[in-house]
Amino acid sequence: MLMATHIVTGIGYDTVSSLLVASLLFGILHAFLRPLIFLLTLPLVVVTLGLFVLVINAGLLLLVGTLVKGFTVKGFWPAFWGALLISVLSVVLNTLTGTGDGRLRVRRTRDKKPANRGGDGPVIDV
Question: What Å distances lie between residue 72 and 47, 77, 78, 91, CA to CA?
Fold first, then answer.
């Protein structure tokens, strides 16, 4: 959230403690309230191919801006760009540190049973 306050115009904080409280509250809301909102707005998420999730995150950031004194979010568009930046940074940091569920593993296994080359194939009784 610190990067969002420095990059996005319209998001700011007065003290470091207000930034920490805002980050903590955003994390809690993101963990508990976002899945409920996501479920309620699932048709919009599907129709917009997942882009509505950014609107949900922007709404949560706006909510944090109204709840935490000393942390300001001036409107929807700063909240939208801040939420987008926070999401992108989160994906990058999770990829670099190897945390999260976004890992992809491809594993090839060999058949332990050799291919049947004789005439002893499956039998079909009629």
Answer: 31, 13, 10, 24
